[in-house]
Amino acid sequence: MEMTKADRNELVRQLKLIEGLSIRQISRLTGVSFNIVKRA
After folding, report:
1. pTM for the complete prediction?
2. What is the CA 28 to chain-centroid distance, rounded?
3. Distance CA 12, CA 26 (A)
4. Torsion of CA 12, 13, 14, 20, to 10 degrees
5. What is the pLDDT of residues 19-34, one digit of tens each?
6. Region 7-13: what's the mean pLDDT?
7. What is the phi/psi pair of residue 19, to 5°?
8. CA dist list (Å): 25 to 1, 6, 18, 39
9. How many domains does the chain have?
10. What three-state secondary structure class fits 10?
């Protein structure tokens, strides 16, 4: 199932709120590129 960009960005924003989770780790976990995670 595909996610919309808005849903993906919201998920990334929520993950970024978790203390101790780096942008690189979020990128690896979600399969979303580092730059997209950084901008979300």
Report:
1. 0.82
2. 9
3. 7
4. 90
5. 999 999 999 999 999 9
6. 95
7. -65, 135
8. 22, 20, 11, 15
9. 1
10. helix
